[in-house]
Amino acid sequence: MTPRQPRAVRPAPAGRAPRVHRRPPAPRGSRGPRPPDAIIKRLQVALEADLDDPTTDGRPGHRWRAALLTATGALLLWARRGVVQVLPAARNVADPDARRAWESGVTAAVNKSVRRARARGVSQAVLAALAAGVVAAHVLREHARLVQAIARAAGSDSYIWITRKDTKVRHLHVLLEGTTQRWDDPPLAGEPDFFGHPGDAAECRCNAWPIAT
Length: 213
Description:
Blueprint: E1 9-10, E2 19-20, H1 37-52, H2 62-84, H3 99-119, H4 124-153, E3 158-162, H5 171-176, E4 180-182, E5 188-190, E6 194-195, E7 207-211
Antiparallel strand pairs: 1-2, 3-4, 3-7, 5-6
């Protein structure tokens, strides 16, 4: 029985060195560390199922709580993985201890949105869409906060502003695309006179690509 070849090495023809396949590094500043859309979608699906369930009284229930618990861990893992790409020292940074605050905050925001929507008598479809928007905004903001906390703890004092490069990007954020900003000096990111980092503004989908000091 022939020994199994390593996964990244192919048998080479006679007289040639084996060819090693390596994954190319992520292009610097292309997308930046950002939360995968699957995290947002999973929370939205769980929330919609709970809102449609008569046993939950139209509020986030057990499906939402289970999805939120999974999403919290996934957000932290994804934020750290994105920062480690450019700051290897981030591997040794302690996890930011703000899980309960974020979980209670996003749940309170969803409940508030649902109450207001029901008071206006909107349809179930509109109610689900409004709640889904609240979820997406909070996930993006929390991910941005985690990236900043991990990067600064790893010694980074600045970052590159990265947008999604589509028609939904705010005009001010288009101007910030590719610029270098400091964590302790947030730029003008909204009107009127709103200063912040990527993800701080409402429904901002931009990302901060940390720079090693």
